[in-house]
Amino acid sequence: MDVQNPSAPPRAQSRVARNNHPNRQAAPLSSGLIHENRRHTARFTVIGNHLTQHAELSLVAIGLACHIQSLPKGARVDIKTLTARFKEGSTRIAAALRELEAHGYLRRERQRVPSGRIVTRTVSCNQPGRRACDDAPHDHAATHPTPAEKRAPRKKKPLPAVPFPVYPAPALLQQAADLLSGLRRHDPHLLLSACDTAHLAPGVAAWLERDVTPAAVRHALTADLPPEGLRRPAALLAHRLAAQLPPLPPLRTPAAPPTVRHPLQNCDGCDRAFRSPTPGRCHDCRTSVATAA
Predict the structure, then answer these.
(1) Which of 113, 164, 227, 266 is the most exposed place for a label (fewest CB within 10 A)?
(2) What is the reported pTM?
(3) How far apart are CA 135 and CA 145, in angstroms?
(4) pLDDT value at position 207?
(5) At the top level of CATH, which class does the domain 45-129 belong to?
(6) Average pLDDT of 94-111?
């Protein structure tokens, strides 16, 4: 792996020595940034400048991506765990995670474990658009492809990132997966693989989480499809889920509980009718008894 840092030339000290030559005029001082770098030999992570200097990511998203890339395999990176670790709060962390997913630095995958349970795994991508298998060495046969293999594409283009729900409840993700599986009944070209369904399900769940009905989500995904069919239906659905994502619904103030109307009772003292959950005396009779006592 190339770990060179373009901001720290490897022979910075020799340049300083040359600048101190008595016959060389010193360069004018600048008010800009000056790097004081030392080479790391342990406990460090290589981060690409395409991430640290990303023009569209927020500072929270960049910092969160650097933190996630530094974690060991198997570490928990759900919203609850990250909120306990940082002080930005669940709302800002959830928004930062969605930014990283939209730009390909994070990917959510649903997998079935040996026990049969389906779990969601988070994949951190230090170079969006490339997967680990792209850099794996090939065997000897792969170095001499046949003419047919030369004409075939080498790798499948990854699907666009989809939004992710703030609270990915299993029931919500299952409802989203069922909706995607049923799209083929509306258009046979929308027959999706299990892998594509797992990639798209969080995006559908994000729509459902915004109080969009399943019928409205289905219409948004299937309306105005090309009449000649689709070469990559999952890519089109992923694009629509991200580009047409509706805003969060307005915060609704909980309605006040209804006023309880107790049944009518006859007072044991004056026989007047009054409302009470249980038989007994009315307020006036109770007051007079208390005063007499």
Answers:
(1) 227
(2) 0.40
(3) 18
(4) 95
(5) mainly alpha
(6) 87
Give the separation between CA 101 and CA 133, rounded to whole angstroms: 20
Q: Radius of gyration over alpha carbons of the chain, in Å?
A: 32
Q: In this structure, are residues 59 and 86 in contact, taking their beta carbons and an 8 Å threshold? A: no
Sign of CA dihedral 209, 214, 219, 225: positive
What backbone torsions phi and psi does residue 268 show, to the nearest 5 degrees? -70, -15
Angstrom distance (rounded) from CA 112 to CA 176: 17
* pLDDT tens, position by position, 189-235: 888 999 999 999 999 999 999 999 999 999 999 988 877 767 889 99
Kindly report the three-state secondary structure assignment for every residue of 265-293.
EECCCCCCEEECCCCCCCHHHHHHHHHHC
pLDDT at 2: 47
What are the boundaries of each domain within the chain? 45-129, 157-225+234-247
Helices assigned H by DSSP within the chain: 12-19, 49-52, 59-70, 79-85, 90-102, 147-151, 170-181, 194-209, 214-222, 233-243, 283-292
Q: Do 237 and 248 form a contact (C-beta atoms < 8 A)?
A: no
Q: Using one digit for the tens of pLDDT, what is the confidence trace for 39-86?
A: 988 888 899 899 999 999 999 999 999 999 999 988 999 899 999 999
